[in-house]
Amino acid sequence: QLQLVESGGGLVQPGGSLRLSCATSGSTLEDYATGWFRQAPGKEREAVACISSSGRSTNYADSVKGRFTISRDNAKMTVSLQMNSLRPEDTAVYYCNARRNYVDSWGQGTQVTVSA
């Protein structure tokens, strides 16, 4: 099973940028569809962006379209999320996800806080 470790979270001012990375190991990344989810305090976990196993297809939540970009490098076994024009409402714990045959693997999460 794939293991996932996120990094890159932190505190950023509104309008700023962050790049989240997800390092994977234990299996072949190209066998998995991957995505980023987030969970804010008191709210349900929600999908932010996803990318197909080949990297050719992406989807985004309406709230982040035009601001976030998901990418992956199967050779380097990494998945990334470039986040620009950050807003206070983007504050949440961000989780990397990988799915194969309807089985999900999750990372431990990384905190993103957008505040002046």
Which short descriptors sum up this protein?
single chain, 116 residues, mainly beta, seven-stranded mixed β-sheet, 0% helix, globular
Write a compact overview of the structure shown.
This protein is mostly beta strands.
Which descriptor suits the 3D outline? globular
Approximate strand percentage? over 45%
The biggest sheet, with number of strands, parallel, antiparallel or mixed sense and barrel status, is: 7 strands, mixed
Overall structural class, as computed from helix and strand content, comes to mainly beta
Uncertain segments of ≥5 residues (pLDDT<50)?
none
- What distance separates the N and C termini? 40 Å
Number of helices: 0
Helix and strand element order: EEEEEEEEEEE
- Give the helix proportion (percent range): under 10%
Task: Tell me the Rg in angstroms.
Answer: 13 Å
Number of strands: 11
Mean pLDDT: 97
What would your notes on this structure say?
Strands 2, 4, 5, 6, 9, 10 and 11 form a 7-stranded mixed beta sheet that branches. The model has no long low-confidence stretch (mean pLDDT 97). The radius of gyration is 13 Å and the shape is globular. It has strands at 3-7, 10-12, 18-25, 33-39, 46-51, 58-60, 68-73, 78-83, 92-100, 103-106, 110-114. Helix content is 0%, strand content 53%. The chain has no helices and 11 strands. It has 116 residues and is mainly β.
